Each structure stands twice: as structure tokens, then as C-alpha cells.
């Protein structure tokens, strides 16, 4: 008798194939689930393999549009970034995949969900917290944290032997000396030889972007239009190419950045599970979209709104995303703060890509008038009188003079 | 009889030459002051001119070392950045110049200081708040905010005519269609044709850095060592060049970035005087030093210390610097928070520059052990048990499950 | 010929009566405006006096409901407080009065508005920034900052003489040795003898609340119901009195606090105009409503939402209100963050007042289930296993053990 | 053969007595440890009992001075408060006790430490994170999270039976229907009948403070002097009593508050272990010391330093203390920010207590001159000109007028 149905996040790789077989061995019925979130993947081969191993069913869910519109675009609006550098490509994908998996689990009467994440990473946390929020009574089976599993499969050889014994086909290609995770927005590289933070990634590791030294010798110009902080139009090829569909726009931004070597980073980051880890990432299109968005905010967003948003919303949102806290009260709260900050972020940014560099060429807005050319001119005197500034400075100085006086009186005059 | 001595920040240009003459005409005795803060400048010519116009004395003060060690280096430690993009090159220079000017004023018995800043910019605020803090009883003469002056000199022609009348020599070169401000750390371009935020800066505007398309075709590698967050050694040329003196190191970082086209930006920023303005900046060496410092913090700085520093210190410090609040109680307070965050930021970052791009190649630290290769490995199980993570997730989930349950009960189940 | 119509905020007191006469003398036509915001005031006498002096018209606008519902209630939702102590009673009133005055100005074709605020206080800033936001082209006439006025009226005697000359009746009662400002939410006392921050306010200064030593000898119990963070029902007299109308509820809370001596404070605060000033305040009802609201949030608000709201919204909102920034993009932004934080703040708080003390007696919520009696019980083991906590602690400890180890290795073991 | 020595935090109560016996039964040798942190306790009886049960040794460590000087006083300097209400009395004690226990463990060659905290509370986290930081290789034995223990002792009866079987004397007094934790700074009451958050605590529960209704009928006045934010002198009895020793001063502040019914609170708070719990607290002296310190900061602390400290230091520090993160890099970092904020907090506050109410009567400072009576006067015009304020407002209004204009142009004029 079955112990019940489990919905397993199945990639077709060695790990989740072994997990599938092991779950069956443990007496569960397994629904294999695979999200199409824009990764390069042979979905048919995965389906064949899952069914061959013994899955009752194989379900692919295309979440690309949701991924772009529901999470990537708001991340652009919020300028989301983790530890000054990381654009959160993996973190953004997790709630989308988790929601799809829970839906498949519920539609197929599964009491449990399972995944192949390791016990030290962020992804287990991101998936499971999302699972629990979306279906608080779900059971989570995490084999890599179950001694019955991880003691049995202590190394890659144990997995290979088990695969052989179970007749699971294994790709003949030699495993790469690092792990990757890919989606429409990015690919990550970590572990293996990258664990030494001083090892420069080999040139052939990078996958999505051309090496800057191999990129075209001429800058490529383009324009991106934003409405309420959302990218709504991308113009390339000197105006010959105009894209407005969100997913198409995102893909075209990817292609643009990829061929010009834009979007690579290499960092040591702080995982939620209090350890540090080294990651290399390619985030081509998102890098372009975020940077042009930041630029447009300079022209169209009020100074104080921007400062509040930067210090509180951007920072909180990035941390919540990174820590897998998408489906939490606090993240719902922070997300509710994004649109109100973006009502004036309307306009177009012109920019170019060249051998890894993104350069802003100019920006304009037909509707927003916060920037006033005449007013910011050094030469003209509209809007306010220079004498007003004297008063402004005098009032600012009240507190500061007192500070300087006190320092002198206490015998410790101010210095650099 | 003289109305008293005024110490004028004198650049040798048209504006401050006219101001000098006008101050004399108004009955003041003038001490001309010029800071050597690393700008390209003909100090001798300026001296000759000042004395020819009628200054009692011309004083140059070399503040380069102070500038690098007292303000640029702490800015690197704090990762200071304004509105996500601007590295504060001008802002950093102001307190250093102001302090030198006040010292010259006091040494020469001046009751007042004067400057040629316009009435709409940030610099007038930065200088004057520093003046008032350092010498609370000082009088500030700001001709561009004095109707007696600005009504008389309404345009460039008025200045030229006055110069001619006073026999002040004017450079024959045509004035550039923008203004600049230069120091050891950067040069700024603004006003003139740049006031249209959609105008791409002409290629020949940029001065400090080579155009990325003209930069060498091969990445140039280098290493930077940090101690307590401060750059202490720069190695180039495959180890043939080793620099440790702070100013030399800074200059060499400049040269490296300059020849590889690194450090250009173009933004619309929010001035303290509530208007927006467009600025183009070249900040070559500081860009390299800041980015490598950020990278090393990934390896050596505790997650939570970094998060607190990022959200509070970096943000507050940048705003204070930008707004001219260096000599204030709050900036003194924030500066006191920098060293305590940097005790572990010791190590070396390897990187390369190439046609405008800066790439991190690796990083290491002999003394700091927060990063543990074995521990972050996906394959090994030292340090903590994978089962611990189950408990960690379970406890994190308590609150989140309740949130999911409440949403279901209220008939609004959670979704993306 | 008239120089045009001015809408003057007129209180009937000596200052604004002199200003009225002076404006007329200066050639303006004056519309006298007086807001009824709940202060104790003889509106009819003021009208008679204004018209007698020469105002074209006298307009009273009753803004009490707006004041309670539009600004006091959101302040309760946000727990607004300035510098840990001050409940912002005056600040809250300013945008309401300014909006009413601008409306009167526009309805009566006034090109300018005028007020009697001094040149050192917060109120001038609060009024004028609101005026400019609501009617950017308005002219503001601030006599106490106009040398033509303040040089002429250097002291109270000058005002009295002018009043006598103009036939303006002056109240025979001796002026109190402090100034006050009163509205439905509070009364402030400042200036005069209070300027010495070490002077204890005389017992007879306090006006709205009974002295705690004279308050009843028995605690008075009551219950307040909140919906989405807004007070919706107040029950007193052992259930005999039930109030639900917002203004009535606010007034009844006032009466309750007044008779029990609740809501007095005495502080030295930091004005927006960088000086410190001493203020004494009575804020009876608002003290009760805010404190019970804070208590209910403990029961019904998620921990992280609360922390975000406390650190960002409460703090920013209070500062904006205090500085007169109600009608600004950033305050609009922050206000938009309040309702989303309050969706779960539904329930009732029971409390008592006694001789200046407010005591919480209990709280409950029929709809919100974040608090779970069984779960928080020390004795029962529902919800999660104690072993989960071991994992939680183990994961938290990863980073901390490393910190302890590093300290030991560096020869500086951790101590208190 | 012994499994090794364990240092057990032993209170003499039923729980830790059973744990002591159980540890012995499990084969450990036990060193019983009891901190004297100012709680009411029969230390001799505890010693006798521990040795009778079988402890090898009983060690009392007097940590009262450390508790006051090392943690309570900095908490006063930082105005530490959790969730607007709780003064962190228990949290403050934990690092002090943990450090003493680790020292005893090390001096007695114990490989492990043990405690009687439940598996749902904050204290287990606070103790254990401190243990791990101070001695990263320590083993922690937490019986209430060990199934071998908690399954055996499922209820109080199991404990009583085991105690009887082992000959452990049990106090004849009936257990109170709540738990308490006491130290020099406070006592907490929770669990039992208090778990219903709507149950008003019975009058006889409160222990440290007199009921406000029973307190004296006359306000009692006193003065507290601070130096660099630390209480250095308390004067009572109309000057007859002067205390300067830190511990004595703290005890006297306790006595003063106790007899006047000051310092009770009742809240529902958010535990680190994501659940809510209800707690009642008496924190007599700390309430007085913190409130007077807050008041003195009004007079002596710069506005912006205060704002930064409030928003970042106070909030972060309180959260760290509550969550048991005292010995962490981030708390060390935040603690380093306290003294720099307090250099000017020098002066004296006069206040009174009366039936639960604390009233500030006045404050002064001989050394700090940030407050300037003349300057804050409404009537006098020293320091700056009222016209300066016009400029100040005009510059502030630039951005705001633009906001108002944009709103009008977009057809949505600003309103409350």
C-alpha cells in the first residue's frame, strides 16, 4: 500500500532521479514536477526518464510569464540588490516555482512535497518557507536532510551505484566541477572548484554571456521606456526593433546583454544559514533593466521618496527575497510599498552596451517635470532667489555653529 | 581705510578674479587662497594673477595627503555612495579645502572668508557649513548671493567687461560649454550643454579617463591589499610594481583606471537645495578601490555587521557628505562607527580592468576565517548537521504557517 | 486702490488684531479666517472684533471632524510620537488648518495668505509649506519675519500702543506668562517663564487635565475597540456608556483622561529650525487611544511587520509631521504605508485610568489568531517540537561560534 | 565511570532539582551553579539541597555589580526598549549569568553546561548563544528539549513523583499559577493563568511594587545626575539622601519606584521563537532611570545624533538583547555606538513619583549649552534673523511647490 502521494521537484539529473527512486522504494507514489522558468532544459527527456523510473505522472508548468511579470519586474521597480552586488536571480525564481509545485501537489492529491536541495544552502529554506505559507498543512520531504538518505548516499559514487542498480540512465558527459541553477533571469555557478574564493572562474564556465574580450568592437545603443517604473518598451537596432510584450522585452534585453558581455558578477555572499559562500552569476537582461531604471529615477523621482525607498524598501525587500521570505506578512507589507514609490517613474533612458560596460547616454520624460533645465542652470535665477539660500544656510548653521563653539570651549576644536 | 581682511578661495579663473577685484573695490584687503587638492592647475600663473589684481598675499596649501588619508580612505571603508551611483568626489574635497581656508584666514587675521560658488549649487552649502563649524564667528561673503554683485554681473559679458576695465587678463581659450571641478579623486562636469539631461556628453568632454573603445585590448590585472578596510598595497605589472604609500597608491589606482576607461558616470542627482541637476563624473581610482573593498567585505565581514553598516552608516554618511554636513555632530557620530566595522576587513582582492569594466578575479585573507571552504561545500557535513536546518526552518515557519492559515481562513489564500 | 485680498489667520488676540490693522494700513483688503479645531474660543467675539478693525469678511470653518478622522486617527494607527515623548498635537492640526485657510483664500479671491507665527518657531514652517503645496502660486505674508513689521513692533508695548491708536479693544486680563495653542487633541504651553527648562510649571498652568493628586481615588475602567487600527467603540461606566462616532469617541476619551489626570508631558524638544525649545503639553484622549492601540498591536500584529513599521513608518511619519511636511511626496508615501500595516489590528483593549496612570487590564480579538494560548504555554508541545528549537539554535550559532573562536585565536576572548 | 562534568544552572526549585538528579542518573558529575543577580533567594537552602541531591559542588557567583554597570547602565544610555514597552529586564540578565556560568564551568573542568529552560521560550536561546560565543566548543545539555527527558516528565506530577522517589525535598507552598524570573532590575510574570491575554493579573501577583492605589498620597521628589549618559548621583529626601555608588544608586531607585508603584507593565510580545506570549513585568528603578535619561537627552543631545541613535542604535540594540544576541559581532558593533552618542549627556533631572506616575519637574546642565534660553525665546531676535527663516522656508518649498503643481496639472490636487 502506498504511504501517499508526494510531489517531487524533478530536474532529470542524477540527484533527483535517485530521490525519485528512493521515494518509491520508501513506499510513496510520486508525481514528478518540473517548472519551465526559462532554463535550458530537455523537458521531454526529463519526462521520459521520470516515468521510466516510476513516477505516476510528470507535470511541466510554464511559469515564465509569471516569473517576469510578478517578480522580476517588481524587483526592477524596487532596484532590488543583495549585499551591493547580487541581483537575486535565484531568489526571485523560488516563490514562483514553489507556488506552481504546491498547485500541482494539490491538484494531484499529494500530502507532501519533496525537493533535492542540499542541507546547507538557501534554496531549501526558500522552497520550504514558501510551501508552508501556501499550504500550512503540507509535509515536506527533504532527503538531503534525512539521515536515512544522506547516510546512505554519502558521495557521488553511492548515487551512481544506486542509479545503476535501479536502471536509471546517467548522462555520459562528465559532471562539471561546479553546480548551476538557471532561469530566464540568470544562471548561478557555485560549489566545486569555485569553493576556493580565490580561484578565478575558468573562461568556459560562463554560459549566458559572451566574454567581454570577445564581444563586438562597437557599442550597441538602445532605449528603454518605463511606465510607473515598469519596462514597457525596448528599442534596438537604431529603431528597427521595437518590443513591448513583457516576456519578449525581457528576452530581448537578455540577448542584448549576452552578446555584449554585460551582467557577470563574482562574490562571496552571506547565506541565511549563517555561512558564507562564493557564487558567480550571469544576469544579463536584469542588469540592464535595473540600471536604466535607477537612472530614470534620478530624473523623475522625488529626492525624499527615493531616500526612504532606498533605505527601507530596497534593503528590506532584497533581504526578504534572499532569505526565502516572499510569502510572509513582512514581504507582503514591503511589496505594498513599491507601487506608491513609482507613480512618477515614467520616461525613457538611452544607453549603450560595450564589452561588459553599460553606459547611460541620456534620459527624458514627457510627463514628469521635477527636473527643470532652467532652474538647475547655474546662470539663471528663476524659481527662487539666491538670497533665499543665504537664509537656508543660516538656519542650517544654527545647530552647527553651536557645535563648533562647544568644541572650542571644551578645548577640542574641530578638525578633519 | 580697509574694511578688514578677507580670505578668498581663488582659482585664477574669470569669476574669482572678478570677485577679487570687486572685494578690493568694496574696500576689503584680500588674501587669495588656493588649495592644491590634486587638480590640474597652473599655481604660479594663479599667484601672479592674484597679486597683479591686488591681493595682499597668495597662499597655496597642499592638502593632497589629508584629502586621501582623512576623507577618501574612510569613504572607501564606508563604501560611500550617493543615490546608488555617485562616489561623492566633489563632496569629499569640500571639508578639506574649507579647513585649509579657515586656517589661512586665521593665520592672516581675516575676519571673513569668501568664495565664488553660485547660489543654486551644493558647494556653497558645503563650504559655508564647514566654515561656520570651524570658526563659528566667521563672516562669509558670497558674492553670487549678494544682489550688489549678482545684479551687476548678470552675464558672462559683464564679467568680461569688468575684467577688461580692471586690466585682468582673460585666457584666450574659448570657455567650454560646461563647468568642471577637479581633484585627486575625480572631475565633475555640469551645466551648459549638459543641462539637457538627454544630451549625450561629447566624447572630448571626458578628461581623466580614456574612452573605453580606445582602451587597451587586453585586460590588465592587479591586486589590492586592505588592512582594517584601508588600502595598504597595490600590485601591478605582474608583481613588478608594488605601491604602499597612501597617496602614491591612490594616484597609481587612478592611472590604472584612467588608461582602461574605468570610472565614468552620468546621472541626474538631487541637490540639497531641493532641485535636480545633471552631472557627469570621472572617478577612476576611487571606483576601483571602493569596488574591491566591497568585494573583500564579502569574504571577511560578518553578515549582520555588514547589514547594519550598509543600511545606517553608508547611507547616512553619504547623505551627510553630499549635503555638506561633514563638520556636524551627526557626521562625527557616523564617522565614529566606521572603524569598528572594519576590524576584520583584512586581505587581498585580485581584479582586472578592461575597456571600462572592472572584474573581480578572486580574493583571500590570511587572518580572517569567517569563510570556511569545507563548511560551505555542498558535499561535506562539518560544523552542523543537516537536521539542524530542519529545526531552523521549522521555527522560522511557525509564524509563516500562521500567516498562510489566516489568509486561507479569511478566504484570500496567498498568491504571488 | 487695494493691493489685493489677503486671507489672514485671525485669532482675535492682540497679535493678529494688530496684524489685521497693519495689513489694512499697508493697503490690502483682508478676509479674516478662523478655524474651529476644537479650541476653547469665543468665535462671535472674534468675528465682531475682526469686522470692527476693518476685515471685509470673517469666516469660521469647522474642521473638527476632519482633524479627528483625517489626521488624529492615522496618527494613532501609526503610533506617531516625536522624540520618544511628544504626541504631535500641534503638528497634527497645522495641515488641517492650512487646507481650510487656502480654501477660504481661493473662494474669496485672495492672492495671499497671512499668519501671526513668530520667526523662530515650527508653526510658520508647517503653515507655509502646506500653503505652498496646496497653492504653489500663493503669496505668503509673514509679518513677524518682515523687518517693516518686526522693527516697528519690537515689544508688547508697541503692540498695545498701536492697538490703542487704532481703537482695537484689548482684553483686560493680564497676559499669562507663557503662550498656548489649543485644539481638540491637545494644548501646548511654551515661552515666557517656561523658557527656563528647570522651572517646574505652576500647578495652575495646566488646563485640560486635573492634577493627578486631585483626581478620583478609584481607577476608572473602560474598553476601546479597534478595527484596522482605528478606534471604533469606547465603552465606559461599566458598559452604560457606548460611543462609536469618531468625534464623540475622541471627545469622550478626552473627558476620561482629563478627569483622571492622564496625558501631561514636559519636554525639551528639537525644533525644525535647529534650536531646542521647552514645551509642556496636555494630550488627554490621544494618550489613551495611542497606548491602547500599541497594546493591541502586541496581540494582533505580526512581529516583523511591526518592526518594519516601528523603525521606518512611525519614525519617518513623526518627523515629517513635526517638520510641517504633511503635504510632501515623502509624507504621502509614508501615509500610504499605514493602512497595509493595520489589516489585522482588530480587537478590544480593556484598561483603567488612575491619577495620571494608564493601566492595561487585558486585550482580546475575535478575528485575529496570531496569539495562540496553547502554543505559548510553557507546558504544552503543540505546533512544533522542542527539538526543532535545537536546530534553530544550532544554525543561529554557526556564525556566533566562529565569532567566539576568532576572538579566542586573536587573544581577546569575549567578555561583557 | 563519569561521562564527564556538567555545570548546571541550579535554582533550588523543583525543575532544576529533578534535572540535577537526572543528570547524575545519566552518569554525569554535576557542578551546581547559581548566580546572585539580585533576586530574592535562599542561597544557603539551595546549596544544601544541591549537595544533598548529589552535586559535587555548589558555586554562587555574585554578579550584581557587573549586571548594573556592564549591562543595565548601557541600556539606560541607549534608552533600550523592546516593542515600545518592555525594558528587557530578563534579557539584560542573561549574558551576565551565562558568562559567570561558563567561567565556573571552565574553572571546574566541565565539558558541558546545562539549564532548565523550556523549549519554547527566549531564555534557552539567550543562554545557549552566549555559551557558544564564550566557549565555542562547549556542549549544551537542554533536558527540556531532550525527548529522553521531556517524554519522561510530561507534567508536574511526573516531576513530583520523581522528586519523591529520589528523596528531593519539595516546598510545601502551593505553586503559583504563573512563573516568575527575578533580578536586580525586574521581575517577570508569565504562563499559567496569564496565558489568557485578557485575564487581568490578580492584585497579589505583583511583588516588587506597591499597588498605585496603595501608594503614598503625596508625590515624592528626587534628582538624578548623569555624566556621559550614566546615572552618577541620586538625591532624595529633600537633599538628605545622596547616593553615588552605581549599585547603591540602582537599589535606591528601585526602592523609590517600588514604594510609589512605578514600573508595572503588561504586554503581549513577540518571542524570537516566532510565537507571541503575554508577560507582566515590574521594572521599578530602571523605569525611572531610563525616563529621566530620555528627558536629559532633550536638553543636551544634538537633534540629528539623537535621531540616528533612536532609529538605529536603540532599535537594533533592543532587538539584539531580546533575541539573546549579546555576544555577537553585530551587538559588539552596536554597543560601540553608544558612548559616542553620550558625550554631551551631562546634567540633572528633577522629577517626582506619585501613585504609578513619573513626572518630570525640570532639568539643567552646567556644561552643555545646546539649549539657549534667549535664543528659543519667541520675543528675542538673537542668533539669526527672522528673514533667514524666510530663505529656509523658500528653499524647502522648491521641491514642495513642484509637487503641488504636478498634482494640479495631473488633475488630482492635494488634499488631506
TrEMBL record, chains A, B, C, D:
<protein>
    <recommendedName>
        <fullName>Argininosuccinate synthase</fullName>
        <ecNumber>6.3.4.5</ecNumber>
    </recommendedName>
</protein>
<dbReference type="InterPro" id="IPR023434">
    <property type="entry name" value="Arginosuc_synth_type_1_subfam"/>
</dbReference>
<dbReference type="GO" id="GO:0000050">
    <property type="term" value="P:urea cycle"/>
</dbReference>
<comment type="subunit">
    <text>Homotetramer.</text>
</comment>
<dbReference type="InterPro" id="IPR014729">
    <property type="entry name" value="Rossmann-like_a/b/a_fold"/>
</dbReference>
<dbReference type="GO" id="GO:0004055">
    <property type="term" value="F:argininosuccinate synthase activity"/>
</dbReference>
<dbReference type="Pfam" id="PF00764">
    <property type="entry name" value="Arginosuc_synth"/>
</dbReference>
<comment type="pathway">
    <text>Amino-acid biosynthesis; L-arginine biosynthesis; L-arginine from L-ornithine and carbamoyl phosphate: step 2/3.</text>
</comment>
<feature type="domain" description="Arginosuccinate synthase-like N-terminal">
    <location>
        <begin position="5"/>
        <end position="169"/>
    </location>
</feature>
<keyword id="KW-0436">Ligase</keyword>
<keyword id="KW-0028">Amino-acid biosynthesis</keyword>
<dbReference type="InterPro" id="IPR048268">
    <property type="entry name" value="Arginosuc_syn_C"/>
</dbReference>
<dbReference type="GO" id="GO:0000053">
    <property type="term" value="P:argininosuccinate metabolic process"/>
</dbReference>
<feature type="domain" description="Arginosuccinate synthase C-terminal">
    <location>
        <begin position="178"/>
        <end position="403"/>
    </location>
</feature>
<comment type="similarity">
    <text>Belongs to the argininosuccinate synthase family. Type 1 subfamily.</text>
</comment>
<keyword id="KW-0067">ATP-binding</keyword>
<keyword id="KW-0547">Nucleotide-binding</keyword>
<dbReference type="Pfam" id="PF20979">
    <property type="entry name" value="Arginosuc_syn_C"/>
</dbReference>
<dbReference type="InterPro" id="IPR001518">
    <property type="entry name" value="Arginosuc_synth"/>
</dbReference>
<dbReference type="GO" id="GO:0006526">
    <property type="term" value="P:L-arginine biosynthetic process"/>
</dbReference>
<dbReference type="InterPro" id="IPR024074">
    <property type="entry name" value="AS_cat/multimer_dom_body"/>
</dbReference>
<dbReference type="InterPro" id="IPR048267">
    <property type="entry name" value="Arginosuc_syn_N"/>
</dbReference>
<dbReference type="GO" id="GO:0005737">
    <property type="term" value="C:cytoplasm"/>
</dbReference>
<dbReference type="InterPro" id="IPR018223">
    <property type="entry name" value="Arginosuc_synth_CS"/>
</dbReference>
<keyword id="KW-0055">Arginine biosynthesis</keyword>
<dbReference type="GO" id="GO:0005524">
    <property type="term" value="F:ATP binding"/>
</dbReference>
Amino acid at each position: 500500500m502506498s504511504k501517499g502521494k508526494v510531489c517531487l521537484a524533478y530536474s532529470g539529473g542524477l540527484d533527483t532521479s535517485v530521490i525519485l527512486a528512493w521515494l518509491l522504494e520508501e513506499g510513496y507514489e510520486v508525481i514528478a514536477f518540473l517548472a519551465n522558468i526559462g532554463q535550458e532544459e530537455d523537458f521531454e527527456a526529463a519526462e521520459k526518464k521520470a516515468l521510466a523510473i516510476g513516477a505516476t505522472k510528470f507535470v511541466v508548468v510554464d511559469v515564465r510569464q509569471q516569473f517576469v511579470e510578478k517578480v522580476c519586474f517588481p524587483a526592477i521597480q524596487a532596484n532590488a540588490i543583495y549585499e551591493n552586488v547580487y541581483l537575486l536571480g535565484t531568489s526571485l525564481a523560488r516563490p514562483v516555482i514553489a507556488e506552481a509545485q504546491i498547485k500541482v501537489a494539490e491538484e494531484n492529491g499529494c500530502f507532501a512535497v519533496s525537493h533535492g536541495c542540499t542541507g546547507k544552502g538557501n534554496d531549501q529554506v526558500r522552497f520550504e518557507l514558501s510551501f508552508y505559507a501556501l499550504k500550512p498543512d503540507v509535509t515536506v520531504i527533504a532527503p538531503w536532510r534525512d539521515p536515512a538518505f544522506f547516510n546512505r548516499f554519502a558521495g557521488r559514487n553511492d548515487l551512481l551505484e544506486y542509479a545503476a542498480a535501479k536502471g536509471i540512465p546517467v548522462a555520459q558527459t562528465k559532471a562539471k566541477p561546479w553546480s548551476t541553477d538557471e532561469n530566464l533571469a540568470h544562471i548561478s555557478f557555485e560549489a566545486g572548484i569555485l569553493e576556493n574564493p580565490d580561484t578565478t572562474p575558468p573562461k568556459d564556465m560562463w554560459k549566458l554571456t559572451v566574454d567581454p574580450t570577445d564581444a563586438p568592437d562597437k557599442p550597441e545603443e538602445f532605449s528603454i521606456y518605463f511606465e510607473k517604473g515598469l519596462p514597457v518598451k525596448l528599442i534596438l537596432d537604431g529603431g528597427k526593433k521595437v518590443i513591448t510584450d513583457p516576456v519578449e522585452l525581457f528576452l530581448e534585453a537578455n540577448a542584448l546583454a549576452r552578446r555584449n558581455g554585460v551582467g557577470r558578477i563574482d562574490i562571496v555572499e552571506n547565506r541565511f544559514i549563517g555561512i558564507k559562500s562564493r557564487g558567480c552569476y550571469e544576469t544579463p537582461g536584469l542588469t540592464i533593466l535595473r540600471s536604466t531604471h535607477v537612472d530614470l529615477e534620478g530624473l523623475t523621482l522625488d529626492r525624499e521618496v527615493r531616500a526612504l525607498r532606498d533605505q527601507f524598501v530596497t534593503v528590506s525587500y532584497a533581504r526578504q527575497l534572499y532569505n526565502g521570505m516572499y510569502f510572509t506578512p513582512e514581504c507582503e507589507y514591503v511589496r505594498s510599498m513599491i507601487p506608491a514609490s513609482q507613480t512618477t517613474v515614467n520616461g525613457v533612458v538611452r544607453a549603450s552596451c560595450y564589452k561588459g560596460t553599460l553606459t547611460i547616454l541620456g534620459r527624458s520624460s514627457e510627463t514628469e517635470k521635477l527636473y527643470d533645465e532652467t532652474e538647475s542652470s547655474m546662470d539663471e535665477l528663476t524659481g527662487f532667489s539666491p538670497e533665499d539660500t543665504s537664509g537656508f544656510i543660516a538656519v542650517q548653521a544654527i545647530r552647527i555653529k553651536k557645535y563648533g563653539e562647544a568644541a572650542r570651549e571644551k578645548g577640542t576644536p574641530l578638525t578633519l
